[in-house]
Amino acid sequence: MTTQRRYPVLAGIVLTAALLLSPAMGTVMANQAGNQQAAANLQENQLSEKAKRTEQKLQMLFPALDDTSRQITLETKDHLPVYEIRYEKNNEFFARAYIHAETGKLLTFLLNDKDLEIPDDKLAYKSADIFMEGWIGEMRSLYKVTRLGVGDVIYSRYVNGIEVVGDEFQLEVNSAGQVTSVSEGENTLTNVNPADFLPPAQAVKKDQLNRFIAPHLQLMYTLGENKTDLVYSAVFSGYVDAVTGAELIPVRQYKTWRWNPISLTPGGKVVKVKNEQEATRIYESEFGISLKGSTFNGVRDEKERVYVSPDENEVLFTKDGVVIGFISYSNAEPKKGKPTLSEKQALEKAVQFLQPYLKQEEKEFYYRVNPDTQNPHEYVVEFVPSVEGLPLKYGPSIGICVNGVTGKITRYHQQLDQKPAKLPDKRKAVSTDAAAKALLAKPTELLYIYPLINGKRLAKPVLAYSIHINNINALTGKVEE
Question: Which GO terms describe its molecular function (predicted)?
């Protein structure tokens, strides 16, 4: 399998390691996780009919579940409605199941098994096959079976000799031959009919892919340790339709990779803070966030001072006495629902907030806007400097989170004091066509995937090419490893 973006999780905001590792941040994040509202308990008869059938099949294959008590909740996982069923025996955790509320598909089942020894291949395969025959019957024959080094048994679907991404089962088996864990891919058994799968002969030849890939490469500078590189970065998902060459989006939490130029109007404002009282006053007067009569507590680390409110809902970051960012959990409310603001409106909110605090020379930037993977109702707006007309990555940056419902700024952090080393001559860059050819010289494979169109997954598979997407050194034309 080609190494692929399956799939990196976008950080909620661009924060320095010092901030993330500070004691104050650890306390705040732990506090916020503990304050999340618990889902309401449901009765068994409130399960959907499809989920009931799945749960009944689990009881048939795991008879020990019969004399357990159940705690059922409905929650959202990866934007999907999911039942969590917690099984207890003698007031102790016994097993847990996650079942898709609408389709009844078993996402994960886990027994509280204390047998951690790994069985030999013969026992593992035999036990897994017996379970699979009970679980999906004769459709077991559609899957190829392999074993991971950690002992798990994997059933993967192949059609026309090509892998069907997300159509798989992963089973754990203990040393006694008992299946203790089952996970299904999101696309498991979505299509059983081989006629739904386009024959590989209809795919364009690999040597014709170049014209599809070159437009997805963006020239930029990247800041490394004591040097600045000039690279072509692959600014797409890594999947293209094998017939049309169109980009395919394989996951719901897709990230926009391309950077777009933007000119901003600096205000030159510098906000300074000396102590807790001043931080409290500035936080309300400058950012409109009140601590409601309480005062910040200051926490100092090696380079920066962090101010944390008593309820840990508000955090203010300073460096050398100058405010460089904040986190406001009160501005993050509500935490549920989809954003009502568009990406364009979120960008406008971020720009309106940011411009007053830019220095006079900080005018030209590149930006991108993405949904926050941890908070689906929020947007993450990232800015990097424009240097000689190209984006500069992994160095100076600004990150702003915008509440997609209220338009309030929930997180802000800027780090623009890092200067790039000597810049490579962009006039010496190889062409995008040459860079694309270098990328396609790496392993490229055909797959069947179920892409998303406007947030909805297609019901039928699409024949796709999976493309190796590491950076290409723009001066040498070689793919970085």
Answer: metal ion binding; metallopeptidase activity
